[in-house]
Amino acid sequence: RMPKLIPIDHNTGRPTKKNRGSGHLYTEMRKRILSLELPPGTELDETTLAEEYGISRTPVREALIRLSSDSLIILVPNHSPRVAPLELSDIRVFNESLQLCQRIVSRWAAGRRTSKDLDTIDQYRLQHKEAVRRGNIDELVEANRGFHSAIGAACGNPYFAATYDRLLYDGMRLVRIAMTVDNQDTQGPIIDYLNKTTDEHDELLSAIRLQDLDKAEALAGDHAKDGMSRIADYILSTMAVSIDLSSI
Question: Over the Cα atoms of the chain, what is R_g?
Answer without folding.
Answer: 19
